[in-house]
Design a protein that fits this description.
- With 224 residues, the chain is an all-alpha fold.
- Helix content is 64%, strand content 0%.
- The radius of gyration is 21 Å and the shape is globular.
């Protein structure tokens, strides 16, 4: 499930690790500066506001994050124009953190392919192995796990280890992602916002039925 395992799972966890890492090294302001100035390009909508001001991410926003987070993160860590030069110890940590994010985002991006070969599945396994090799750099920032015994052995991380087998058996992941079903909830959510929030169900059904009838009518008129 790309929506809940990748977008709202792995990428959301990763953004939390990155924020704590940048805060620890006094690089969060630089990251926000870069984040707000990302230029638009096809299939990517720039956020237009500071990363810290986003309180809740949607699946679409996190899908965009996966495309640009590595470049933004690396630029913030290597920025020296208005930041103190990193020490030799920090440089080593920065390098390991960048590699960890690189391999994790590469895995997530390749998992979204609509067509796979044995080579792409092999790359996914390689990226996942490399992520596990460098992930310990973020271990101290796992606030969502128990503070005393932090670890990476939680369901979201475990599930991605089965992705390559799932693809080999059942085909590409996007074809059975719940993102398709979740997108159909949009009209019902809009209908709820239009209701008075009191006994909302009949109002939601009435609003949805009315909009669906108008849409069908428009199609019939267009067909004439």
């Amino acid at each position: 499930d790309l929506l809940h395992n990748i977008y709202l799972g792995i990428l959301e966890h990763m953004m939390g690790w990155i924020q704590e890492f940048l805060t620890h090294h006094n690089r969060l302001v630089a990251f926000d500066f870069i984040w707000k100035r990302l230029p638009p390009y096809p299939s990517f909508n720039p956020p237009g506001k500071a990363y810290r001001s986003i309180t809740q991410w949607t699946g679409k926003e996190l899908r965009n994050v996966g495309k640009v987070i590595l470049a933004s993160f690396a630029a913030a860590l290597r920025r020296t124009s208005d930041q103190e030069r990193p020490t030799s110890g920090q440089i080593q940590e920065f390098h390991q953190a960048i590699l960890c994010i690189r391999y994790l985002t590469d895995f997530c991006l390749m998992a979204q392919y609509k067509v796979h070969t044995s080579s792409t599945i092999g790359y996914m396994n390689y990226y996942l192995q490399c992520f596990h090799r460098y992930k310990d750099i973020f271990l101290r920032y796992l606030k969502e796990i128990l503070e005393q015994k932090s670890h990476f052995n939680f369901p979201k991380i475990h599930l991605i280890s089965h992705f390559s087998d799932q693809i080999s058996k059942y085909g590409s992941l996007p074809q059975y992602s719940t993102e398709i079903c979740e997108s159909l909830h949009k009209q019902l959510k809009q209908a709820y916002r239009r209701s008075n929030k009191v006994d909302a169900m009949p109002q939601i059904l009435q609003t949805y039925t009315r909009s669906h009838a108008f849409a069908m009518r428009d199609k019939n008129i267009s067909a004439w």
